[in-house]
Write a structure and sequence with these properties.
The complex is a heterodimer of chains A (141) and B (104).
Chain A lengths: L7 H11 L6 H30 L5 H4 L1 E3 L4 E3 L2 E3 L2 E3 L9 H10 E2 L2 E2 L3 H25 L4
Antiparallel strand pairs in A: 1-4, 2-3, 5-6
Helix pairs in contact in A: 2-5
Chain B lengths: L2 H8 L6 E4 L9 E14 L2 E15 L6 H11 L3 E10 L4 E9 L1
Parallel strand pairs in B: 1-2
Antiparallel strand pairs in B: 2-3, 3-5, 4-5
The chains are: A mainly alpha (141), B alpha+beta (104).
Chain lengths: 141, 104
């Protein structure tokens, strides 16, 4: 008979549940921050790479990428949102510029660059969170 | 699904001009589509499945256009999966932009 194990983010959530640590806000906050750092870095790389193709970048939008300050609870899972924050030097919202870069607009085809960012960041982000969890389990915190 | 096959599918949307990459002199309601990548599923150290990923963008100056529902139905009937969907109203052009990311 075959068996199935969960891995990646689902596996990590399952393990937190099994050990009764899913409600440990301090631990999950640290894990989220570690994962968010990886995803933010990948976002920055993705924006720079995408804009470089068109040769039009001041670097402002890439540098504005950061996790949301507040950690949200979605059901029994904590989450943070990563996106370009604030406005550029012309007063245009960086998130709006990222939206257009991703989805395009009339006269400008979208790049869907966030799909590539997410694919590139997923494994490394989970690994970073696992590392924090492993340190916690072995008493390193 | 190859780019040519997707183009053929999109051309079946009635009353809508279809453009590849750039919509030159487009007026009214129109679709622009572009290749954006491939999704791969690896198994046994080989690429077991690969699907093309496309951006399909529908622009309309109409309010409450029924075309998005038609586009979605046609995509679905042709086994093209919508993996992401967003809608945005463009202040500067007065158009509503229905942005689909699809795989097939």
């Amino acid at each position: 008979m075959g068996s199935m194990t969960s891995s990646g983010l689902t596996g990590l959530i399952d393990e937190l549940k099994d050990l009764g640590e899913l409600d440990n806000g301090e631990l999950t906050g640290k894990m989220l921050n570690a994962g968010a750092k990886v995803v933010s870095d990948e976002w920055k790389k993705g924006i720079k790479r995408t804009l470089k193709k068109g040769g039009r970048s001041t670097g402002d939008m890439a540098e504005s990428v950061a996790p949301s300050k507040k950690i949200e609870r979605k059901g029994d899972v904590s989450a943070t949102t990563i996106y370009p924050q604030g406005k550029d030097r012309k007063g245009v919202r960086n998130a709006e510029k990222a939206f257009i870069l991703h989805y395009g607009k009339s006269g400008q085809v979208g790049t869907r660059f966030v799909d590539d960012v997410e694919a590139a960041a997923e494994d490394a982000a989970v690994e970073a969170m696992e590392q924090v969890f492993d340190e916690y389990k072995t008493g390193g915190k | 699904m190859t780019p040519k096959q997707l183009k053929a599918v999109l051309n079946t949307v009635p009353g809508v001009a279809v453009y590849h990459n750039k919509a030159l002199k487009a007026t009214g309601e129109y679709i622009v589509w572009a290749e954006v990548g491939k999704s791969r599923l690896s198994a046994d150290n080989i690429t077991a499945e690969a699907a093309h990923r496309y951006a399909v963008d529908f622009f309309t100056p109409e309010e409450y256009s029924e075309k998005p529902a038609e586009i979605e139905k046609i995509l679905e009937e042709n086994d093209i999966v919508i993996t992401d969907y967003a809608v945005d109203f463009e202040d500067d052009t007065g158009r509503t932009h229905y942005a689909y990311t699809v795989e097939g």
